[in-house]
Structure formats: structure tokens, C-alpha cells
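Please review this one:
***
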Amino acid sequence: MRDDRLQDRHVVVTGGAQGIGRGIATRVAEAGADVTVFDVDTETAAETAALVEDHGSTAQVVEVDVSDGDDVAAGVERAIDGLGPIHGLVNNAGIQRSIPILELSEEEWDAHMAVNAKGVFFCCREVGSHMVEAGIEGSIVNIASTGATRPFPGQGVYATTKAGVVGFTIVLAKELGEHGITANCINPGTVDTPMVQQWLEENAERAGVAEEDLLEDALDLHVLDRMGQPREIGHVATLLLSDEGEWITGEAINVDGGYTKM
């Protein structure tokens, strides 16, 4: 069902090719937003763009490696050239590998930091600067994780990056507030995405158990005892990007089926 909360707004979603990014991109399109999808996987991102257009919005795909500052700067310029000024940014691009700390290599550590932490910084810096210069009272939503405060074993580096994103977002909110720009985090719990499927495969193999048994154990830690859907993260992102969320800033909102309350 289409509404008009984000009508005439341009939202950039990083990592929008699949999973939570796709759920957010399509949900904000339902609210009337035009969407630029940043991703390195342009073929799959084009499928997201088609779904956005199915909701009556305009979409474009821009190939961007968020861990490269120059690439992000160029991508933001291309986004503006294609769909006009940017009113909302959702930093969703991220990676996660389940690796015990004593087995974690420096290369894996750096790879997680580059995408999950530095990528958020680059995108916030470039889009935030654009909003300030254009006088846009926009919104930035960073996708962190319940792993920032309640991580599973094997999430040492992932948890570190996501906790960093939460802290970074608080400072961002304080620094951009005078410009009328809000900045918030969403902390998803266990959501039905390729990333969670990869987590299940890696941990089931390491523990020598079936994936379905591991998933059942994980869901038992959620009050609602089920996986979330990408669209459900999109509901909250849409709120934060809209006028309804204009007095919410600096928050880290758990959207997790009660995982952090068990």
C-alpha cells in the first residue's frame, strides 16, 4: 500500500541489492521516495531498483565501494545528478563472518572495519556535507545490530564495528542537529537475510550441528520466537526518514523481536 510520507524525497540506500537493504529500499518507495541503490553487486541491485519502480517510484543503481572514500564521493555526485538533492541516507552496507577471536586474522579485522565502520563514516560525511550545503533538513539512518550490545560468539570484530557505529551516530546527531538533520541507528535482531544464512552455515559447520537446530536455538532467545523480515526493518527506517521522526535523533532502536529483552 503506497502512502505519501516520503513523497518528493530522494533516499540513498547502501548495500541495497538484497536482504535488509532491499527491504528498506522497497518500503521507502511505498512511502513515495525515489531511491538510489549503492552496491558493488549492480546486477542484483538492478532487481531491487525494479521492485522500487513497481511501487511507482524512480530508482537508479550506482556502483559504489563504501570502503573507498573517493568512490563514495563520486557516487554521491552521481546520485544527485540522477535524482536530485538527497533527503535521506540509509547506511546498510555491511559484512559479517563468524570467526572466533583467536582465529581472527588482521585481514579479516581490517575488512570488517573498512566496510562496516569506515563505510558509514564516508557516506555520512559526503551526504551530510551535501545536506548542510543545500540547506536540507534530512535524516540519516545507520544500520547497526543487536550484536553491538549482545553479540554471539564469533562476532568479535562484527560487534566491535557495530558498537562503533552506535557511538558514531550519537556524535553525528549532536553535530548535525543545529542543521535540522537527524541521525539514528536501527539495531536489527535475527532477520531472514543472506547474511544470517551465511552465519548459520558457518556456525553449524563449526559446531557440528544442523542449521535448523542452530536457528531454533537462536530464535528461542527472541520473545517473539521468529525471524524478522527485511520489510519490518524498513517500517522503522521509513518512520525515521519521515516528518513523523523529526524529533527522534541520536537513538539506537532495537528492532529485534525482543532479543535484547530475553
Notes: The two ends are 33 Å apart (CA to CA). Residues 10-190+229-251 form a domain with the Rossmann fold fold (CATH 3.40.50.720). The longest strand covers residues 182-188. Helices lie at 19-30, 42-54, 69-83, 106-134, 156-176, 194-207, 211-219, 230-241.
